[in-house]
Amino acid sequence: MNGAESLIRTVIAAGVEVCFANPGTTEMPLVAALDSADGLRPILGLFEGVCTGAADGYGRMAEKPALTLLHLGPGFANGIANLHNARRARSPIVNLIGDHATWHVGADAPLTSDIISLATPVSGWVRSVRNSASLAGATADAIAAAGRAPGQIATMIIPSDCQWGPAESHAAPIEPPAPLAVSSNAVKRAAESMRKGDRVAVFLGGMALRARGLKAAARIAAKSGCHLICETFPARLERGAGTPTVDRLPYFPEQAIEMLKPFDSIVIAGAKKPVAFFGYPDFPSQLIPEGIHTAILAEPIDDVPAALEALASEIGTPVSTATPARISRPERPVGRLDAMSAGAAIAAVMPEGAIVMDEAATTGLPFLAASVAAPPHTYLSLTGGAIGQGLPCATGAAVACPDRRVIAFQADGSAMYTLQALWTQARESLNVTTVLCNNRSYRILQVELARAGVTEPGRKARSLTDLSNPDIDWTSLARGMGVAAVRVETAEALTCELERSLATPGPTLIEMIL
Question: What is the model's pTM?
Answer without folding.
Answer: 0.96
